[in-house]
């Protein structure tokens, strides 16, 4: 698939993205285009800036350089007319929230509310953020739990669920907000090996439904099978990117070396 089809607005487009934490320069000019309905897998060693990049897209961190567009809209800023000139103005909290609502994020640690059932966890944001009536949110939450194969666990508390089931609830919770794009940050890294497959299966079925996804993961098999685009990051730059075939045929020494260690 051509990742930069001109007639279509990219779901996410990062241009020259930089991020520094004080004197620590973490991202050093990231360019990446993600087309709607595609799956991008980001690979890279620990500390290469993968999580920071996802957090920037979701505005959990602010850029120190470059630009990110989500669905054709620059994040964090809008253009306004002032004295006949177009100027950039930072968005207020409500406008940032509206942009962030386009994105769902799933983290390595699921952070479910321990005192709420699976169903209540999924209902939480629709009720409290979107002010959806409870009966409606309950139906929606039940449907999202069904989507991740957990209809029979709706009334269980997180402590009564396996790690894989908890992560699937976390995915359902993100989906309940009806995001256009899902960001996954190592969603299976904290799981026992036998529980990884069920979470990857849910991600696989989401991809099949046409969800736009950016996944940071070390699951090379998943990348090979599901990714439209594979990105290898190291040291805050994109070292290599291309179709999933680059996993079998890496060009850059650093990517080859990385693959030898994870495969
Ligand atoms: P990855 O997800 O690829 O492992 P991260 O994006 O988490 O990498 O981190 C990249 C670098 O940025 C690391 O050196 C990390 O310590 C640093 N870093 C991440 N977040 C912060 C922060 N909030 N403040 C300072 N340094 C940070
Ligand atoms: Mg990380």
Automatic annotation (TrEMBL):
It is found in: Cell membrane. Pfam families: ABC_tran (PF00005). It comes from the Bacteria. GO terms for molecular function: ATP binding; ATP hydrolysis activity; ATPase-coupled polar amino acid-transporter activity. The keyword Transport applies. Its EC number is 7.4.2.1. This is ABC-type polar-amino-acid transporter. It comes from Bifidobacterium moraviense.
